[in-house]
Sequence to fold (273 residues):
Amino acid sequence: MIKQWGKALSVLAIISLVTAGRAEAKSGIVIDGSTTVGPLAKSFAAYFDKKYKVPVTVSESGSGNGAKSLINKSCDIASMSRSMKPQELTAAKSNGVNPVSSIVALDGLAIVVHPSNPVRSLTKAQLADIYTAKITNWSKVGGPNAQIVVIQRESNSGTQESFKELVVGKETPVTRSAETQASNGAVKNRVSLTRGAIGFIGLGFTDSSVKKVAVNNVMPSSATVKNGSYPLSRPLFFVTNGQPTGLIKQFVDFPKTSDGKLIIKELGFVGKY
Fold:
């Protein structure tokens, strides 16, 4: 009788594990956050859906909203192009959430101008002066006699936060005359159509429609981001509530795999691992 009960319990344990795994796979993974990390998250999601039949929902509402979603427990992974802020960590702790960050890839903030602009390089100091309206004409930095049209990202953007931290300073406001765009793609499009424009986008979003400008005489590239010589380099993150397990861990660790590394490279980002 005891042996029979032991066998029954073992069978029940196995069924429970299988059922839990199926339930996890059925419910899938929910990701919210950065538009910069978006292409990576979406490509990873397509891979998981095809290979493992795991549905992954990806929203691109900005790093700030990704952090809020994680804090509110409405997503499994927050994708972020910046680190979590002290106030976000405090809010997370108050709600019983323990944010754990994992690096997805490395990225460079590419400074871009219209292809017709002859300016090839700017210093960080010149960039800061442009974005704080101390320099308002391209002629002051070796360009044509034309007004500079400053393009920035929205305040909720991790890319905006990174740019401010790396270039103008966290507490220094960007000029009020700056135009705000909601995504890397929107910034690129605006710059590509505006001769006097300057903007910043993730390296993976650059193409021939805009011209990359060197910063401190260093061009943004996979090599200069990887070795740290490009001054506007940054890590990109997946943030989870506690150490990830199961399918979520498998997804977060995907950048370390050969297929993950290939996707990162194909999308124009820089592998960390």
Remarks:
- The first strand starts at residue 29 and ends at 33.
- The chain has two domains: 2-106+235-266, 108-233.
- The chain has a mean pLDDT of 91.
- The chain has ten helices and ten strands.
